[in-house]
Amino acid sequence: MYDTITINVAMLPVTEKDRKRLEGQHFQTKSLDESLQHYRITDDGMLETDWDMLWWELNNYTWGKPRTEESVPPEENWEVVKITDSIHFYTHTENNRDFFEFVAFFELGKMLIIRKLIDIDTVKSKIKRKSKT
After folding, report:
1. C-beta separation of 34 from 99 below 8 A
2. In DSSP terms, which residues pair with 88 in a beta bridge?
């Protein structure tokens, strides 16, 4: 299992072309609880989650389908997750052709820095270029 993270793509260290490709993407991570929880990194760099929504979903859904029609989700109640750790998160775009992976470092829930991790295709292309010279 994994958790999901959303982030404003303007905060990601990628080219403008890649920003457009990443617009609207949800990222996956196994760096947190792995409980199918949703997190977000706010524009001011805070890691937040909505614990009320997690408990509502756990109590009102079975295999992704609502148990009852009458159940109304709670209002959003985002809270800062005060972790001091690194979080790796990743996504695929355009029919799984492009893979993006990032690592963000947090102190007490505040993002300090974010970096794009190099992908295997980039490594392969650099090796091919060096071998031709």
Report:
1. no
2. 103
Where on the phi/psi map is residue 47: left (φ > 0), alpha (ψ -120 to 50), or beta?
A: beta
Give the Cα separation of 85 and 93 in Å (integer): 27
State if pTM tops 0.85: no
Q: Coil, strand or helix: which one is 41?
A: strand
Q: Are 4 and 30 in contact (CB under 8 A)?
A: no
Which secondary structure element, helix H or strand E, spans residue 114, and what is its range? strand 110-116
pLDDT tens for 87-124 read 999 998 876 578 899 999 999 999 999 999 976 666 66
Strands 47-49 and 61-62, sheet pairing: unpaired
Residue 103, H or E segment: strand 98-107
Of the candidates 77, 30, 17, the one whose C-alpha atom is nearest the C-alpha of residue 51 is 77
Joined together, the tokens standing for residue 7 give 């982030």
